[in-house]
Design a protein that fits this description.
CATH class of the largest domain: Alpha Beta
CATH architecture of the largest domain: 2-Layer Sandwich
Number of helices: 13
CATH superfamily of the largest domain: ATPase, nucleotide binding domain
Structural class: alpha+beta
């Protein structure tokens, strides 16, 4: 028995074919969607729904065989597509990167007025309503993965899992309902919503939850994901109310405590660009060479600088700035600067974990920022005080979607059973 997992990302779409007995990824494919549309304003980040569906369906069609028992779907959260009563998209995808929520509204901004971050679907819709650009024929709005699943199954209306619903904002974690007119009643549990080419299709889930689902084999561990941004996610039994940590719905009545850093791995990229600008008058190294040099320096630094890597602010305070301090004659060096950036990235996630107040028994790392940087792995292990495990599979979100699908299809009873398929890299 096999399962397909599809992850509709912001720039690419990933599909895997998973052996449902062993957890081995039998086949994988990642295709650039090239779906971004020319913006009408600097704040606008929109994509072509048609291009996304063409690429995702192309991967899916290539993977379907008689052995495939289920299709699991996940993708980029927060963004929305408007859908009419006939089940057709009537707008582009307004992505999670769209900045219209940060524009002025009355004496503040749209996002602050609604107490919900810009890029969240309800904020985007509120702006569109207020400015008369919401399609008149719109009966619903949903995430891109909801629309893809709806399209595959020939449904007239989207169906939405609570993990996707919460990403739009105005979602009550206790009642699992919206306090905003979305037009959809969110669903929970493990659901099959239809078929495509005779294969059951599972209700799509959020990519954050999917990645955690495929990475944490045991309770009491945290998933640290570092890409352009960074994120710490911990499964919890209760709703947390803290300044920098968001509680999201998870599976089987549990929640996901999630802290996100806007800069994350981008901080290391900024340092790379800084070194490149210094070196460029004298040499022309490529980015890979500079990163290799930085990794080597980080391993040799003894006394790092103290670096606050919140260079892009935070979701709660976008105007916040990072800082560099603790400069002394002995550590005013490129090596100490490099190590300080890495430590700052680790410390920002660690502060969020302390804010959660959830004791940890271990940490798991994912994302290229961790997989490709041994120096960062060491910093995370030192700051968190636990050895770092890394999933053997690279496609965390699509793997998680496939696991969810296997439970929905009845192959496994629950997350604990399905989690036996998760493997970690040998140390």
């Amino acid at each position: 028995m096999h399962a397909i997992g599809i992850d509709i990302g912001t720039t690419s779409i990933c599909g895997i074919l998973l052996n449902a007995e062993t957890g081995e990824v039998l086949r994988r494919e990642t295709v650039q969607s090239n779906a971004f549309l020319p913006p009408s304003a600097s704040f606008e980040k929109i994509q072509s729904v048609e291009k996304i569906l063409d690429v995702a369906k192309g991967i899916l069609d290539a993977f379907i065989t008689p052995e495939v028992a289920v299709i699991g779907i996940t993708g980029q959260m927060h963004g929305i597509v408007y859908v009419d009563k006939k089940g057709q998209s009537i707008s582009p995808l307004y992505t999670w990167q769209d900045g219209r929520g940060d524009l002025p509204y009355k004496d503040t901004t749209y996002a602050i007025h609604l107490s919900t971050p810009a890029g969240y679907g309800c904020v985007t819709d509120f702006y569109n309503r207020e400015n008369g650009i919401r399609p008149k024929e719109a009966a619903y709005f949903c995430t891109i993965m909801d629309y893809f699943a709806m399209h595959l199954c020939g449904l007239a209306a989207p169906r939405m899992h609570i993990t996707n619903a919460a990403s739009l904002g105005f979602f009550d974690l206790l009642t699992h309902s919206f306090s905003y007119d979305v037009g959809i009643v969110p669903e929970e549990g493990y659901q099959i919503i239809g078929t495509y080419r005779g294969v059951p299709v599972a209700l799509p889930i959020g990519d954050n939850q999917a990645s955690v689902f495929s990475s944490l084999r045991e309770t009491g561990t945290a998933l640290l994901n570092i890409g352009t941004g960074s994120q710490i996610s911990v499964v919890t039994e209760k709703i947390l109310k803290t300044e920098n940590v968001e509680t999201r719905p998870y599976f089987e009545g549990k929640y996901l405590a999630c802290g996100a850093a806007l800069c994350g791995g981008r901080a290391y990229s900024l340092l790379k660009d800084f070194f490149k600008s210094v070196i460029s008058p004298f040499a022309s190294p490529d980015d890979g060479e500079i990163y290799a040099f930085m990794d080597e320096m980080a391993n040799t630094a003894v006394s790092p600088l103290s670096v606050d890597t919140r260079f892009a602010g935070t979701r709660q305070n976008p105007s916040l700035s990072g800082s560099i301090s603790g400069i002394r004659t002995e550590n005013f060096t490129p090596a100490s600067f490099t190590k300080g950036i890495l430590r700052g990235m680790a410390e920002e996630l660690f502060r969020m974990q302390k804010e959660m107040g959830i004791p940890l028994r271990g940490i798991v790392g994912s994302g290229n920022g961790i997989r490709k940087n041994e120096a960062l792995k060491k910093e995370l292990e030192e700051i968190f005080g636990h050895p770092l495990s890394v999933p053997a599979h690279l496609e965390e979100a699509s793997f998680g979607a496939a696991l969810y699908g296997l439970i929905a299809a009845g192959k496994y009873k629950n997350a604990s059973e399905a989690g036996r398929l998760i493997r970690y890299e040998a140390k």
